[in-house]
Amino acid sequence: MAHLIGGEDLHIEFPTRTVFEGVTVGINEGQRIGIVGRNGDGKSTLLKMLGGRLTPDSGKVTLRGGTRIGYLDQADRLDDTLTVGQSIVGDAPEYEWASNPQIRDVIAGLVSDLDWEAPVSALSGGQRRRVALAALLAGEWEVLMLDEPTNHLDVEAITWLANHLKTRWNKNSGGLLTVTHDRWFLDEVCTDTWEVHDGVVEPFEGGYAAYILQRVERDRQAAAAEAKRQNLMRKELAWLRRGAPARTSKPKFRIDTANALIADVPPVRNKVELSQMAVSRLGKDVVDIDNVDVSFDDPTQPGGKRDVLKKVTWHIGPGERTGILGVNGAGKSTLLGLVTGATTPSAGRVKRGKTVVVATLTQQLDELWEVENDRVSDVIGRKKTTYVAGGKEMTPGQLLERLGFTSAQLSTPVRDLSGGQKRRLQLLLILLDEPNVLILDEPSNDLDTDMLAAMEDLLDTWPGTLLVVSHDRYLMERVTDQQYAIIDGTFRHLPGGVDQYLQLSAAGAGGSSAGAVAGSPLDKRAAADSQDAAAEASAPKAGGAEVRAAQKEMNQIDRKLGKLADQKAKLEEKMAAHDPADYEGLAALSAEVQSLQDEVDELELRWMELSDIVA
């Protein structure tokens, strides 16, 4: 593979610390590199040096002749005086950019819901991000450098971006460097991973999953080496005295060795134990939302009302872990407001259990405003002295350590913490209040991949009902057991998870922004392209006999699902009336409920397959 960019012996330091010392890296054609590491360790600094945005104190960066670099900053650099269209294609005539399939794809994928003539100054932060990304991707570049490209993007846009980057260049051409905390995106796009830590850049093969496996193996080897260190010192000394040549090559990572390391690791959550603890804390009833409508006053709409939610029914049980998907503005916050009591339904009924205590991890860090001048140790000292996590009693200080705080940081004023540290402290304070229903609203903001893993580990032992709204697909699938979506105001279960939601969105049923650019001269062309694509994608229809057989099986599944729902309800009533001290009995009942739920999930997936045939 041809060399694109090289950084040789890079050294850079800031007034308080040295960030990199003697780092040498290179990017070859065909490489798609994800950069990971703790917040503050230098990921963006490395990207800026390689992209020519920052000059190292020593060392040099070299580019192959003619290499063009496209760079996306964390903050956009859009000109507020321009329109959306001017920001993306400049003053180029329509026939130039509209005849370019790459530009048409970028426009349809990122800004199809925006007014082409709208001024940039009128856009929201998320809309500005999409315009800035579209403006970059519309250009021709040999190398793209993206700093947190998924910030402010929803699940659909992130999925589109991943697919675009995978197909933008031929397999062995082009280069990508991206700093991101979105682990699904790293796995989907990247062929290599660079970990930035302690002033060095350590390369790994593969995306995020492969990187984690290799890191486990590296740490295991380090632990084994330390345990044997005393016994090996004499041999090592003899080796050095013989003047052994330096070992500059490393053996390839062996996936079978890594898999052996995790072969006997138990599931991330003990569902039976968490379920019985949740029932003992919550009882049978958590929140029941029955046939609820929500509308708000809006003079621009017919009748002066805007319908946000329509005929929503959702029975939230003890210990459920549910993810909620939907485009921005679909009504996710309104739905959560029904759970917390902040939203009043226009019609229908909302019933909350008597023992329900709801807490919300907000995006705004509201819980820390009143204590921003206090030290971390003083803030947590006002809470409980102990907390049980994973069956072990821990002090708040031990919990902070589990979430990545050092003992020195306990004396730091809250206002001086980084964004990620504030986010972790916010979560800890909420957990110490011991709610039994926890709502997480974009919890991954400001957290690096290690801290996200630490937070997920802590949530794995939390015995309550968990509701998550997030555009971070990895986190959504990691901490929740089921997903729902708000689609055109209705609330829909997704047995197929995020993949099913994306399929619905691509088909136009997700309330997504897929379509032609509003107010753009590309309207008719995009509509025609969409019709052509739909015609090409349409499969031959099933025969009459096959349709009838599928319909018959769907009817059977409907009847069986009804019976299973009755059985599950009876078991849950039995659990609620059961002696909380009888853990074995509760565990057996909980296992029966889980078995029924597994059967329901399988039947729902089969029903979906059959519905495609009938349709």
TrEMBL record:
Residues 547-613 form a coiled coil. GO terms for molecular function: ATP binding; ATP hydrolysis activity; DNA binding. Residues 522-545 are annotated as: Disordered. Pfam families: ABC_tran, ABC_tran_CTD, ABC_tran_Xtn. This is ABC transporter ATP-binding protein. Residues 528-545 have a biased composition (Low complexity). InterPro entries: AAA+_ATPase, ABC_tran_C, ABC_tran_Xtn, ABC_transporter-like_ATP-bd, ABC_transporter-like_CS, ABCF_ATPase, P-loop_NTPase, Val-tRNA_synth_C_sf. Keywords: ATP-binding, Coiled coil, Nucleotide-binding. Residues 5-223, 289-513 form the ABC transporter domain.
